Amino acid sequence: AGLGTASTSLDGLFDGGARTWSFLPSISIPIFDAGANQANLDLAQVRKRIQIANYERAIQTAFSEVSDALVQRTTYDTQLRSQEALVRASAESFRLSDLRYRNGVDSYLNTLVNQRALYQAQQELIQTRLARLSNLVTLYKVLGGGWSERTTDGPAPAPAAPPGPLAAAGLMAR
After folding, report:
1. 84: in domain
2. Do residues 121 and 92 touch, judged by C-beta distance below 8 A?
3. 110: domain CATH number?
């Protein structure tokens, strides 16, 4: 609904009577749209269902990734304990074979073989620790952890001021 006055001549176009005032909001809805509104509604509902399906799939993927990472963590913890026990046993075997060699009971070849086995066990322990740490990073990521770079340093120091005319001329006292 509207209320106003109008002028029929152009010379009074900007006079007070040319203003129109509206006091109520107006709504414009087409009476016949050949089904366009229904088609738009159907399209919006289909898009909504697609978005819901994508959301559910993302949640299922997230739970699966967390579950996999937790299972791997348990596996790596078990492997780590076993590998640490193997390193201890290999170290003891090397120590005993070295004692036998030093006392003249055994050849140096057995000491070298046991030393090589110890080094191999230590390398496998390092690889297992690395895999476990990588798994912890993966677990952190799949649980929603992110990476934000923060510096712990204070603000950057101000650049040195350019030398004044006295310093440039070498006349400044030091």
Report:
1. yes
2. no
3. 1.10.287
pLDDT in tens, 70-93: 999 999 999 999 999 999 999 999
User: Is residue 99 over pLDDT 80?
Assistant: yes
Counted residue by residue, the chain has a size of 174
Is residue 73 situated within a structural domain?
Answer: yes
Number of independent structural domains in the chain = 1
Task: Report if residue 58 sits inside a domain.
Answer: no
Global pTM reads 0.56
Domain holding 100, by residue range, is 68-143
Question: Residue 89 and residue 114: Cα distance in Å, rounded?
Answer: 10
Q: What is the pLDDT of residues 1-47, one digit of tens each?
A: 455 555 555 555 555 555 555 556 667 767 777 788 889 999 999 99
Contact by Cβ (8 Å): 30, 44? no
- Pair of tokens at residue 136: 């912890």
- The H-or-E segment that residue 17 falls in is none
- DSSP strands (E only) in 2-103: 3-4, 20-21
